[in-house]
Amino acid sequence: MIQRDAKKKVLEMADKFPVILITGPRQSGKTTLCKNVFKNYRYVSLENPDNLEFVQNDPKGFLKLYDKFVIIDEAQNCPEIFSYIQQIIDESNINGQYILTGSQNFLLLQNITQSLAGRVYIMELLPMCNNELNSKNWTEAVVNGGYPRMYNNKITPNDYFPNYIQTYIERDIRTLVNVRDLATFRKFINLLAHHTGQLVNYNQLSKEVGVDVKTIQSWIGILETSYIVFTLKPWHNNFAKRLVKSPKLYFYDSGIPAFLLGITNGNDLLTSNYKGALFENYAITEIIKLLRNQGDNRSLYFWRDSNGNEIDLIIERGKNVQLFEIKASETIKSDFIKSVHYLDDKMKDFNVHHYLFNTIQHSQQRTNETIVSWQDVKLINTK
To answer: CB of 27 within 8 A of CB of 147?
Structure first.
């Protein structure tokens, strides 16, 4: 079994909070992590119809049976249970009493903020990172993505992703919104893959899909809720008056857009026009995983002005700012270095760190920037 980097943080927080919520995409390994970390806890899944009916009809009876030291899987299926859990933990005052998991972020957080605020620690568990997988080839890492079942059962992308899309993505969509024409929604998902790493243009997507802008916005929101896609917001400041205001779109797992684009092996990726976009998607999600596994839920940004000058990724910690240029190249060109330093003259009041994230095998520390190999994300300072 592959050990997850999030294990240390989860254990630490279980000594400080009565409830731990582990959320993230379906099949990202939440249940396996819980069972591995909390081996002596009882386990109950609310995906099981009998368990779900029990808790819906008799929440007090259910929680009398599962009163403490229990893992409740897919807890968002019965959000009303949170109020009853609140009463129990307030009376018992025991940390690590309930471990909850869930795959639909909006449904979970909407109810937890009402019932368990201040009593719950929330950990986002994304698909596995390369520090856990130790892949040796960046193209295969991008194409395969990080879903644990693929690696545990040696499933190829061609066999895994069609099932994942049909079984999980489309099912979740149907539970959250009434999609009358599934073929149109599938067309929409495929178009998003073509727009990976690009600015979100709702009007363009509306015309290409054949639905109104509000529907496009709703569908993207649902995919964000289900941990399929996410958007990076532009970093706003006073450095320039004409800044891009639209977000950029990425997938939580690079294997999904690669598959939707017909790329199922490393050789396909090397010759694809989408190589740069997919590697950028991979790099950003690797950095997000590094942060989330340490319990850091801060927002990340990008910067672009109307002239096309761009910083691919920005992490802000007060006056400490990290700027990233991401390139699917083993060659370190002067233009790459120039890009990541574009804002230097305007950021003299900040403590700025510059990173070039690319496909080289060995990282380099230079005077004014760190060249980060795709295998060395852990070199990025997260403090």
So the answer is: yes
The full DSSP string for 333-366 is: -HHHHHHHTTTGGG-TTSEEEEEEEES-SS-EE-
Q: What is the maximum alpha-carbon separation in the chain?
A: 66
Token digits of residue 232: 């990076």
How far apart CA 181 and CA 262 sit, in angstroms, is 23
Domain coordinates in residue numbering, the chain? 7-124, 131-292, 301-379
What gap in Å lies between CA 331 and CA 86, rounded to an integer?
55
Integer Rg of the chain from CA: 22
Query: Which amino acid is residue 306, in one-letter code?
Result: S
Q: Cα(283)–Cα(359) distance, rounded to whole angstroms?
A: 10
The CA distance from 183 to 26, in Å, is 22
Stretches in the chain below the pLDDT threshold 70? 104-108, 174-179, 237-242
- What's the rounded Cα separation, in Å, for the pair 374 and 359? 5
Using CA atoms, how far apart are residues 299 and 147, in angstroms rounded to an integer?
23
Please provide residue 355's backbone torsions phi and psi, each rounded to the nearest 5 degrees: -130, 135
Which numeric CATH code is attached to 7-124?
Answer: 3.40.50.300
pTM of the model: 0.93
CATH of domain 131-292: 1.10.10.10
Beta bridge partners of 321: 316, 352
Confidence (pLDDT) at 169: 76
Residues 6+ apart with CB under 8 A from 84: 59, 60, 63
Question: Following CA atoms 87, 92, 93, 95 in sequence, which dihedral angle do they give, to the nearest 10 degrees?
Answer: -100
Among 214, 213, 242, 245, smallest CA distance to 231 is for 245
Coil/strand/helix, residue 36: helix
What the block records as the tokens of 187 is 């067309």
The dihedral through the CA atoms of 124, 125, 129, 132 has a sign that is positive
Q: List the alpha helices (DSSP H) in the chain.
A: 7-14, 30-37, 49-57, 59-65, 81-92, 105-115, 130-133, 138-144, 148-152, 157-164, 170-176, 182-194, 202-209, 213-225, 255-260, 266-270, 275-292, 334-340
